[in-house]
Amino acid sequence: MIVPITLLLVTVTGLTISAILAFWWAGGDGQFQNLEQGALSVFDRDEMPEPPAPLRHE
Amino acid sequence: MSNVALAPEATDVDEAQKLRSRLLRAEIDAAACNPVVHYLASALFWLLLGSVLAIAASIKLHNAAFLADADWLTFGRVRPAHLTAMSYGWSTMACIGVGLWIMSRLCRAPLRHTGWLHLSVLLFNLGNAVGVWGVMAGRSTGIEWLEYPKEAGVLIVAGFIPVMLAFVDMARRRLPGHIYVSQWYLMASVFWFPWLFLTVQVLMIWSPVAAPAQPPMNWWYGHNVLGLWFTPVCLAAAYYLIPKVIGKPIHSYYLSIVGFWSLAFFYAWNGMHHLVGGPYPAWMIGLSIVASFMMVIPVLAVAVNHHFTAFKDIGLVRSSPTFRFVVFGTFSYTAVSLQGTSMAFRDLSKITHFTHYTIGHSHLGMYAFVTMILFGAIYYMMPRLTGREWPSVWLIRAHFWLCGVGVLYYVMALSIGGVKQGLWLLDDSVPFMEIVQRLLPYLEHRTFAGKMMTLGHVAFVISFVWLLLRKPVPKSEPTLLAKNPRPEPAAIQSV
User: Fold this and answer.
1) Are B243 and A43 a contacting pair at CB < 8 A?
2) How far apart are CA B468 and CA B37, in angstroms?
3) What is the ipTM of this complex?
4) Structurally, how many domains does chain B consist of?
5) CATH of the domain at B491
6) Which side of chain B, N or C, has fewer Cβ within a 10 Å radius?
7) B436 in a domain, yes or no?
8) Is A5 on the interface with B (CB under 8 A)?
9) Residue B175: which of B336, B287, B25, B343 has the closest Cα?
């Protein structure tokens, strides 16, 4: 019982550790900065939505 | 002055970049067309076969004499054959097809070495054929979600290797800049699935661990294959398709990142809640219940994002087939996830465990969420991949209403019947055989709903085959369910 439970926990922990490593890399790569740009990265250049109309007082 | 002088040149550069984008998109679609259509066509074959097996299994639940003469058509074989054909045939192959195309589009990197992907399709088809045949011949492993005999598992693992390599290759060649949230989900899922599948194949099929350790292993896989394979691919598709169809970015990119990372951190610990009440250490079950509750974070993050984005232009559900299916799928995701969290709690689990309520829950997830989003994605992809438009609005409408109403009817019937079943099972004064009798009407409703969904699948397959047989017309109008209420955004056009 000990061996399989350990294996299971090692695998689950492995998943979590790999998530932490990926998170670390993403932070270093600047993926969590300028998030507005991230939202627009789904669009190609010719598909970019029009910027919202300025508010009346602007 | 200098601004005025630069303006024409800037416009020219902008126009050139837009033209380059269009050409790159055309190149990506041309490269993806054959392997992706190969995946999708195969997936549809397994969808039809799985539907027929589902109806046979469902009828047997209220009419035991149905097809009772042949041993290979007994309930114990037909039902796992249905589950596995739908999981590894339909859902997995459709997820791969949809995932490959979206990843290719988002990385702006055309697929390469597509011969390996065709080989992958063949291996998957062979694996599913060997698996379904083995289950129906009585060689099921008896482990839920892993009923295929061991040789089928080997073929599926082999078939997944080219898929992983294709994703890594696309990610490596992606254009610099932000990784869109769909890419995060897709890249993670193509590593999570083989990890999960290979682990249980080794520890439960090839070199089985001690019997008491098998249920935790089984439900670790059974739950995670939903949350770390089918769910990320379909969330990725929804995150891609909703902005594309409405032509507006997602409500909050920040929330989408929170949703992805919280899923990655919490989901793997969920599976043990299937063993609430079982003979396992309390901390194992307790930890799993806590993790299930923590899932509220990614679910709400995704729900807020999907629904708020969709409601920016919700009127498009009247005209866009893709949007209609995807919005249905995203609402189902919110519902099934919150329902799943509630079912992890001991008090509710005491009633719903071992009842038809669980089957209703799984269909709300695997069908109303996963399958409906895959349908929506296929409606979006096929015109772009093939240059052909969907031939019949009537067939699309039939597909949506039969499947949408069918699955809701199915879930309602089994949820009501399941709760009653659970309460009766807890009541010592109700004999077991009387519970069986009382449940028959709910099971008949289940069969009726299943037939509706199967008819919807037939309509979809006719549409799909008809589209493939049409002549390509690259600049044709998109097939919409109603007149579009406003001018088309660039994203909705076929090119």
Assistant:
1) yes
2) 9
3) 0.81
4) 1
5) 1.20.210.10
6) N
7) yes
8) yes
9) B25
